[in-house]
């Protein structure tokens, strides 16, 4: 295969390369790397972290140039994203889809040229990566284009039908544009979907009764017919944690893989965990639609560690231990036994600026803390080593060991509530909520946590620790046995993250970049 060749230029969306689905078990494990953080780890640090832990595939949610540059030459396979807000344009015009494919795929689809993997999300930019074959002049990760993912969970019930009428036409136009460009035999369009697009009827709650949601059943039939016609996979996000979060009566043990739950008997087939049941409900829905053998990719699966009574490190450790063993053994599911399942864990790092509309847990999905430090034992190889720990991020630089605390000498606390509200409106206080790690502290503890969260988000600016005279900086760590009062990391290095190139290689890369950019515009 052509040597992986060096980075290059930014344009308008998101790009990448995807792994070969034939790789067995945990050896082909993928990881979601989100960057919605006030102080994200420098991309070079993250890439080294991925390599140190043997992670071979990564899925991005933005088109940060520094991140893509850091991934250049790493050998890590990359998947990135393009927005739902492009669906209307692509649905309404086959010309727009052809222009998009020409601009982002076809123009660079030649031996020794650009190889692109694309996924649709909520950002309109695109990054292009160049591969100059075996010249060895400069290095970037590259692989054949595999998928164009059209939209991201567009049929979520929470969207109230916003994308119902435009997703399928967009999918058709994109795939047809790929076909017309002569690359449709190897580049497939798909739609990443939430597991709420299928279910079992209320009077027969077993996986084999799975069907697509009644309000979109006809649409889903059209979509899977089209996917099958073009030999494309079905992509789904499955979250056993949400089964617990959304239903207080859901049996706890059924969310895990260690056999502690009462099985669900589906005509003699026993389901001991909700992941298998969910996956096979989809398989049944696909079968009912005439495509029971359609390949399925699990684009997201994981367990948060804070922000809810069920979001805790001990549960995350338990969940992943069971999942990873199954992936490594190619256990499959009852409907698809002894089969490899392509899975991307969600996610790599905590993100303190994610929307908490779904719940406070949204900022705590990481298998690592915000600073790249492990939260719990985890064996990514799936070999069941109980004390295995992930390799932590190396070279992380922290701000000074200074916290912002409630001034103990203040007597008038009449403005305390308003200042806490202000701090938590501009920083992450989700760990203070019910069932979370910092819940239950006294007024001083809550105030100090809120003030410090804001102070750290503001990179310890002097003016960020005043709160109308209620706060002051301290050098004594106010953390408790269960509640960590963070010190944020230094992030200036992120802007400097870029692959090192020799003088001649730099000149060649820059010239080629400029030529390609001019060709695009």
The averaged pLDDT comes out at: 82
CATH fold node name of the largest domain = TIM Barrel
Strand content: 5-15%
- Helix proportion of residues, in percent? 25-40%
Summarize the main sheet.
7 strands, parallel
Q: Strand tally, please?
A: 20
End-to-end span in angstroms?
30 Å
Let me know the CATH homologous superfamily of the largest domain.
Glycosidases
Q: What is the approximate shape?
A: globular
> Which class of secondary structure composition applies to the elements?
alpha/beta
Helical stretch count? 12
Please state the CA-atom Rg, rounded to the nearest Å. 24 Å
The domain count comes to 2
The low-confidence runs, each spanning 5 or more residues with pLDDT under 50, are: 1-26, 107-118, 121-145, 493-521
Question: Based on the structure given, which CATH architecture of the largest domain is correct?
Answer: Alpha-Beta Barrel
CATH class bucket of the largest domain? Alpha Beta
